[in-house]
């Protein structure tokens, strides 16, 4: 027998921390990271070679080639200093230059060496970069696939310990760290170490004394940069944590944008987002300050040792220990060159260490063995199942509440083919039983048997194919309706799909859609109503043909007529199959073979409907009584007609403008207006009504970075200061060249005995330049960083604000769905920083340096200056072309990258995927998206490689051109060696500056499309600036719909409302009922001004609602929907969401009415109890009652209830319904309901069908009509 493991055994161990290994501590100490050595890590770092665990043979071959070529280029790069020293020596020691053939041949040997080594470096560097880049892309691509594969295997108990946003963010952030650590960083480390060692070896060969004096530059430089990394680590870590919290606020707000809007909570969420961004900015500024200080200190150290090197070299030259002055230049340049490259290795080494930690986190999930693995081949594969079910003394508690037993010794049986109903109050264990039966969880003790076999002994895939589940909140996936149904059985024919939809009563509404079965639905199926989603989910389950069917409130979103049709169809489809039904609407349970009443995790009553009703004092009888209709007269049969407009005595109109959201839910379903998008159904085939243009204003042409720089309001002062300081920073290299020229003059012209004396002031000038660099670099780095953080945070807030006030149809479009919008803001904002932060400083100061250096070159020798400028222009042209191509490729990759959206959808809907056993299908889908992205990323690799190779080798070619021309000019007597030396050195240094520019060019290029993308979000038209415009009249509560016609903008040809007439007077309770898709929830949506109707009048107290301030309107209206959405935070924060001036006593009163006060005040933390992500710490009923309290605390004039009690059990519904009845007193209440017993006391009931009112009256009057309403009554009446 398979070992039964409890959920406690598989609680997340993410809190466990690890000591670093001895070697890691040693490396950290060597890098001056003693504090890091003492820190404990979230995961034990993997070894360096384990980073390449997922490398194929081809990948390992490419990495080996890359490593060898990195070492080779590391040896080759210092040759530029060696050749330069040799050439300088020729200039200094040659006495006669004009027509001197010896000088010509000696000098041109080095010109040829520049050319040959430069070409070799370009070829080897290009190959090295491509190999490293492609190998890292391949490895991280495989890691992503394995990570997602592992997630799809994990059990529900583990997911309860995680956060959706954390899992997806962890995937993206850690994979990027690994890609960074195993890609070009390894090559840079090998290259840098080799360069330093080569420089030191050559230096010692030239003169060991001078080399020894300057040798300390390397270790000290490395120590300084390592200390900088140490100081920055805490700030960076805290910044990362707070940035994660900010991202969570952003995701939560926009993914539930309709709830935010309905609660007028836009500013609340914006302030919450702003607070997290401000906290993040504080740590970012600390990091910028440390980076600027230590970067400046690093240059000070370089110049101090440079000065010391030349001074000591002059001393050795003066006492004739060094005979060739060119050797001093060679050794000084070699040690500075090697020390600089060694000094900048610390970030690369830390990147590798971070990659090892990130890999440990990723591998921890990849390698995690779930308690039950759906992909495992272990367990019995039962071929013939009769369907007998038995619970034997089952005890169970959820991992997060181990002390609370949800099931406490539950025992019951179901015979094969029986229909068994589970009823009871919310939280009694009904849905938990289905979770255990499908092995989403394992029970703590006891056993569950199917046909006498313990389900733990059955292969889990086999088990979930045996058991089909239709859940209360059905989840659909991005794609077509056909694709969603085919997920039930992948080899379905189109006819089989149609047959299943006919059984589920979905075929007719699908055919009315413009694209039929090929209609695209958004993430989560948000373009369909709740009833339509449930019917598609039922069809998906039907095609699986399970032997056991679990219906967990499967028809709760259907109207009574559709429910009867679907249930009758299900009865036929599942004849001979065991069916377990969970329902609060007890009329659906009358024909069950057995009804089991649960209470406190145990069986309280058991029997048939009739048997349990005979026990007048029983729980079930009490529940039935609460849902029965009161005695009524025998119905007559008058004709059913549409009521004329004259039946409405008073008229109030209002127009429904576009808004950004609904109310308190996650998708705009029939029972869930609160979140989003509704597709019209049950409507005429043709429509001549106007269409509404989506996405607000027409798209403007992208303006790139210019638009960014003209939207830095409030930060131009900082930006100007940053640019001015950056320009000063740009003078460093020109000043260095001029000082270097003075050094050359000293050795060329001074007498031997005065060399040391004349070199002293130059050494002091070098030190002064280093001090200036410290001040300027610190100032520039900090001001640029400060500017970037302030501007980007401002843009993030603007983007979020505009989205929270966005009109509803904006999110109906797949390209601008909530998931896409969150991804774009999250990705684009950091990418924009490259155009504002110290990377922009690098570009601006080096451009200044290039211009000044070229000017110096032209002044000293115009032919060499012009030739060098030409070579620079050629390089710039090449870089521009490459950058343009890279930008196009990046834009294409950005546009086609669907991996983030798909990953988010998979993680959010993981349980549905597991229940329909489609883990492998979604993994294949994810792999395909990853491989598509990989193909696009690899297309840019050659361009990036050429860019890197040409820029890193450019100094060879610039020196070749400059010296080739200069030597000729000297030979023919047109120029002096000093002029050529200074002009050539200026051009070479400008090439170095250009390399610094190109180093930031890749990220800078990405900033432009990111800016365009983010500003499209910011500039899209919304209600942001008009939300307070309009009338603010005293509201009494008279509402009237007068000949309202409406079609959703995504399907303008089909009317949802087709001349609707409906009225509700102040203080009245009005109910709207009818078939699914008839337009009931659309009535609520128009009242909340989520959409603009096409024609007709909608008034509130004789005022058109389009003339009333939108914010004021929503202050007067409260909405409670079917699927409540709560936000991370406390219960108190959720109830007070979007309100002002409310006290705790107001909250307590609302909670008392909503029947939630006892639960809250008996909880250990009371109103400060955390509800968890999406309210995950609460049951469905508890979440619903908190949503009701959130509505009541507003004391609205108009209360909108859209299936507000559908998630509650009968007992709780009765209590809450009585409370809502009391709460309705003195205010207009408009209720949408399928459960007709909840609206029998309404002052007026409207039966809506095909977008029109076809019956109107009180409950008694409509029963007497014996029309459509009366027919539904008969289908739901438990007394019949």
TrEMBL record:
<dbReference type="InterPro" id="IPR003439">
    <property type="entry name" value="ABC_transporter-like_ATP-bd"/>
</dbReference>
<dbReference type="InterPro" id="IPR027417">
    <property type="entry name" value="P-loop_NTPase"/>
</dbReference>
<feature type="domain" description="ABC transmembrane type-1">
    <location>
        <begin position="65"/>
        <end position="354"/>
    </location>
</feature>
<feature type="transmembrane region" description="Helical">
    <location>
        <begin position="61"/>
        <end position="87"/>
    </location>
</feature>
<keyword id="KW-1133">Transmembrane helix</keyword>
<feature type="transmembrane region" description="Helical">
    <location>
        <begin position="759"/>
        <end position="792"/>
    </location>
</feature>
<feature type="domain" description="ABC transporter">
    <location>
        <begin position="389"/>
        <end position="625"/>
    </location>
</feature>
<dbReference type="InterPro" id="IPR039421">
    <property type="entry name" value="Type_1_exporter"/>
</dbReference>
<feature type="transmembrane region" description="Helical">
    <location>
        <begin position="720"/>
        <end position="747"/>
    </location>
</feature>
<feature type="transmembrane region" description="Helical">
    <location>
        <begin position="980"/>
        <end position="1007"/>
    </location>
</feature>
<dbReference type="GO" id="GO:0016887">
    <property type="term" value="F:ATP hydrolysis activity"/>
</dbReference>
<dbReference type="GO" id="GO:0015421">
    <property type="term" value="F:ABC-type oligopeptide transporter activity"/>
</dbReference>
<feature type="domain" description="ABC transmembrane type-1">
    <location>
        <begin position="720"/>
        <end position="1006"/>
    </location>
</feature>
<dbReference type="InterPro" id="IPR011527">
    <property type="entry name" value="ABC1_TM_dom"/>
</dbReference>
<feature type="transmembrane region" description="Helical">
    <location>
        <begin position="188"/>
        <end position="206"/>
    </location>
</feature>
<dbReference type="Pfam" id="PF00005">
    <property type="entry name" value="ABC_tran"/>
</dbReference>
<feature type="domain" description="ABC transporter">
    <location>
        <begin position="1039"/>
        <end position="1275"/>
    </location>
</feature>
<dbReference type="GO" id="GO:0005524">
    <property type="term" value="F:ATP binding"/>
</dbReference>
<dbReference type="GO" id="GO:0090374">
    <property type="term" value="P:oligopeptide export from mitochondrion"/>
</dbReference>
<dbReference type="GO" id="GO:0005743">
    <property type="term" value="C:mitochondrial inner membrane"/>
</dbReference>
<dbReference type="Pfam" id="PF00664">
    <property type="entry name" value="ABC_membrane"/>
</dbReference>
<keyword id="KW-0472">Membrane</keyword>
<feature type="transmembrane region" description="Helical">
    <location>
        <begin position="945"/>
        <end position="974"/>
    </location>
</feature>
<keyword id="KW-0547">Nucleotide-binding</keyword>
<keyword id="KW-0812">Transmembrane</keyword>
<dbReference type="InterPro" id="IPR036640">
    <property type="entry name" value="ABC1_TM_sf"/>
</dbReference>
<feature type="transmembrane region" description="Helical">
    <location>
        <begin position="326"/>
        <end position="346"/>
    </location>
</feature>
<feature type="transmembrane region" description="Helical">
    <location>
        <begin position="287"/>
        <end position="314"/>
    </location>
</feature>
<feature type="transmembrane region" description="Helical">
    <location>
        <begin position="866"/>
        <end position="884"/>
    </location>
</feature>
<feature type="transmembrane region" description="Helical">
    <location>
        <begin position="843"/>
        <end position="860"/>
    </location>
</feature>
<comment type="similarity">
    <text>Belongs to the ABC transporter superfamily. ABCB family. Multidrug resistance exporter (TC 3.A.1.201) subfamily.</text>
</comment>
<protein>
    <submittedName>
        <fullName>p-glycoprotein</fullName>
    </submittedName>
</protein>
<dbReference type="InterPro" id="IPR017871">
    <property type="entry name" value="ABC_transporter-like_CS"/>
</dbReference>
<feature type="transmembrane region" description="Helical">
    <location>
        <begin position="107"/>
        <end position="130"/>
    </location>
</feature>
<dbReference type="GO" id="GO:0035194">
    <property type="term" value="P:regulatory ncRNA-mediated post-transcriptional gene silencing"/>
</dbReference>
<dbReference type="InterPro" id="IPR003593">
    <property type="entry name" value="AAA+_ATPase"/>
</dbReference>
<feature type="transmembrane region" description="Helical">
    <location>
        <begin position="212"/>
        <end position="229"/>
    </location>
</feature>
<keyword id="KW-0067">ATP-binding</keyword>
């Amino acid at each position: 027998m398979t070992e039964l493991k409890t959920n406690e055994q598989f609680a997340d161990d993410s809190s466990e921390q690890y000591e670093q290994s001895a070697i890691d501590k040693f490396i950290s100490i060597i890098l001056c990271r003693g504090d890091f050595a003492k820190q404990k890590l979230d995961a034990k770092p993997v070894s360096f070679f384990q980073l390449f665990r997922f490398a194929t043979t081809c990948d390992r071959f490419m990495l080996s080639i890359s490593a060898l070529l990195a070492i080779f280029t590391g040896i080759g790069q210092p040759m530029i200093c060696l050749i330069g020293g040799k050439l300088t020596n020729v200039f200094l020691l040659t006495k006669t230059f004009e027509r001197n053939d010896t000088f010509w041949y000696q000098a041109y040997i080095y010109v040829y060496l520049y050319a040959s080594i430069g070409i070799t470096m370009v070829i080897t560097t290009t190959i090295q970069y491509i190999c490293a880049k492609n190998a890292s892309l391949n490895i991280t691509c495989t890691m992503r696939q394995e990570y997602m594969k592992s997630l799809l295997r994990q059990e529900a108990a583990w997911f309860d310990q995680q956060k959706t946003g954390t899992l997806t963010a962890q995937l993206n952030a850690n994979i990027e760290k690994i890609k960074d650590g195993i890609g070009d960083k390894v090559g840079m480390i090998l290259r840098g170490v080799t360069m330093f060692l080569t420089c030191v070896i050559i230096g010692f060969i030239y003169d060991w004394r001078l080399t020894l004096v300057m040798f300390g530059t390397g270790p000290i430089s490395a120590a300084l940069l390592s200390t900088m990394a140490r100081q920055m680590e805490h700030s960076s870590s805290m910044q990362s944590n707070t940035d994660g919290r900010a991202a969570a606020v952003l995701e939560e707000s926009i993914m539930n944008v309709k709830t935010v809007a309905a609660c007028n909570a836009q500013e609340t969420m914006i302030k919450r987002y702003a607070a997290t961004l401000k906290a993040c900015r504080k740590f970012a500024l600390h990091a910028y300050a440390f980076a600027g200080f230590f970067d400046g200190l690093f240059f000070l150290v370089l110049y101090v040792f440079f000065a010391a090197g030349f001074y000591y070299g002059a001393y050795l030259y003066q006492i004739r220990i060094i005979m060739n002055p060119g050797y001093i230049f060679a050794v000084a340049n070699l040690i500075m060159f090697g020390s600089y490259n060694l000094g900048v290795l610390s970030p690369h080494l830390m990147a590798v260490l971070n990659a090892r930690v990130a890999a440990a986190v990723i591998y921890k999930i990849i390698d995690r063995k779930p308690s039950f693995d759906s992909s495992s081949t272990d367990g019995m594969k039962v071929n013939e199942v009769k369907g007998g079910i038995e619970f034997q003394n089952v005890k169970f508690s959820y991992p997060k509440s181990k002390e609370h037993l949800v099931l406490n010794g539950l025992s019951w049986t179901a015979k094969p083919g029986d229909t068994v109903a589970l009823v009871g109050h919310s939280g009694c264990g009904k849905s938990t039983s289905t979770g255990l039966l499908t092995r989403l969880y394992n029970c703590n003790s006891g056993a569950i048997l199917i046909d006498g076999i313990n389900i733990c002994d059955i292969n889990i895939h086999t088990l979930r194919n045996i058991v089909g589940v239709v859940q209360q909140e059905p989840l659909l996936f991005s794609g077509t309706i056909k694709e969603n149904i085919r997920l039930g059985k992948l080899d379905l024919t189109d006819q089989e799909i149609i047959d299943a939809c006919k059984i589920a009563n979905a075929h007719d509404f699908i055919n009315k859609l413009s694209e039929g079965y090929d209609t695209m639905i958004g993430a989560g199926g948000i373009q369909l109503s709740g009833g339509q989603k449930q019917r598609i989910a039922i069809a998906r389950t039907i095609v699986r043909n399970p032997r056991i069917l679990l219906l967990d409130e499967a028809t709760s979103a259907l109207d009574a007529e559709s429910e009867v049709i679907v249930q009758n169809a299900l009865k036929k489809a599942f004849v001979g199959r065991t069916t377990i039904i969970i329902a609060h609407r007890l009329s659906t349970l009358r024909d069950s073979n057995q009804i089991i009443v649960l209470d406190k995790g145990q069986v309280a009553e058991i029997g048939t409907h009739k048997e349990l009703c005979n026990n007048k004092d029983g729980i079930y009888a009490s529940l039935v009584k609460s849902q029965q209709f009161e005695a009524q007269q025998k119905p007559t049969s008058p004709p059913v007609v549409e009521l004329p407009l004259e039946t409405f005595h008073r008229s109030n109109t209002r127009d429904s403008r576009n808004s950004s959201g609904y109310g308190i839910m996650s998708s705009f379903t029939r029972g869930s207006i609160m979140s989003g998008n509704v597709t019209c159904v049950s409507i005429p085939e043709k429509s001549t009504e106007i269409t509404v243009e989506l996405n607000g204003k027409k798209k403007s042409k992208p303006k790139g970075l210019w638009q960014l720089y003209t939207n830095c309001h409030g930060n131009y002062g900082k930006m100007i200061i940053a640019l001015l300081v950056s320009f000063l920073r740009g003078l460093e290299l020109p000043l260095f060249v001029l000082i270097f020229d003075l050094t050359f003059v000293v050795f060329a012209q001074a007498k031997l005995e005065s060399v040391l004396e004349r070199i002293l002031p130059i050494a002091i000038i070098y030190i002064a330049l280093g001090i200036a660099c410290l001040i300027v670099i610190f100032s520039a780095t900090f001001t640029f960083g400060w500017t970037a953080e302030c501007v980007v945070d401002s843009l993030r807030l603007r983007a979020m604000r505009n989205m929270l006030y966005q009109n509803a149809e904006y999110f109906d479009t797949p390209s601008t769905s909530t998931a896409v919008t969150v991804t774009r803001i999250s990705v684009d904002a950091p990418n924009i920083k490259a155009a504002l932060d110290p990377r922009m400083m690098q570009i601006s100061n080096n451009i200044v340096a290039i211009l000044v250096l070229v000017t110096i070159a032209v002044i000293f020798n115009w032919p060499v200056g012009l030739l060098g400028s030409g070579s620079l222009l050629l390089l710039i042209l090449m870089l521009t072309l490459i950058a343009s191509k890279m930008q196009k490729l990046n834009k294409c990759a950005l546009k086609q990258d669907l991996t983030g959206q798909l990953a988010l959808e998979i993680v959010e809907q993981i349980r549905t995927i597991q229940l329909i056993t489609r883990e492998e299908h979604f993994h294949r889908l994810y792999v395909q998206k990853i491989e598509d992205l990989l193909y696009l990323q690899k297309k840019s690799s050659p361009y990036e490689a050429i860019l890197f190779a040409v820029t890193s080798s450019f100094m060879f070619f610039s020196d070749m051109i400059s010296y080739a021309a200069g030597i000729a000019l000297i030979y023919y007597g047109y120029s002096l060696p000093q002029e050529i030396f200074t002009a050539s050195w200026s051009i070479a240094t400008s090439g170095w500056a250009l390399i610094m520019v190109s180093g930031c060019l890749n990220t800078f290029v990405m900033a432009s499309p990111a800016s365009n993308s983010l500003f499209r979000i910011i500039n899209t038209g919304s209600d942001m600036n008009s939300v307070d415009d309009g009338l603010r009249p005293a509201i009494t509560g008279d509402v009237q719909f007068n000949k309202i016609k409406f079609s959703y903008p995504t399907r303008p040809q089909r009317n949802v409302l087709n001349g609707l007439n409906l009225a509700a007077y102040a203080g009245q309770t009005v109910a709207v009922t009818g078939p699914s898709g008839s337009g009931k929830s659309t009535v609520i949506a128009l009242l909340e001004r989520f959409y603009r109707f096409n024609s007709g009048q909608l008034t509130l107290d004789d005022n058109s609602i389009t003339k009333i301030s939108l914010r004021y309107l929503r202050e007067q209206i409260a909405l409670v929907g079917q699927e409540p959405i709560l936000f991370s935070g406390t219960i108190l924060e959720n109830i007070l969401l979007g309100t002002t001036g409310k006290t705790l006593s107001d909250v307590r009163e609302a909670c008392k009415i909503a029947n939630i006060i006892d639960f809250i005040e008996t909880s250990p933390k009371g109103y400060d109890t955390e509800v968890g992500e999406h309210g995950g710490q609460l049951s469905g009923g508890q979440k619903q009652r908190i949503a009701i309290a959130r509505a009541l605390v507003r004391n609205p004039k108009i209360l909108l209830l859209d299936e507000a009690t559908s998630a509650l059990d009968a007992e709780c519904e009765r209590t809450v319904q009585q409370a809502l009845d009391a709460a309705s007193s003195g205010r207009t209440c408009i209720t949408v309901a399928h459960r007709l017993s909840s609206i029998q006391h309404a002052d007026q009931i409207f039966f809506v069908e095909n977008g029109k009112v076809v019956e109107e009256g009180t409950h008694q009057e409509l029963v007497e009509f014996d029309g459509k309403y009366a027919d539904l009554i008969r289908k739901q009446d438990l007394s019949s």
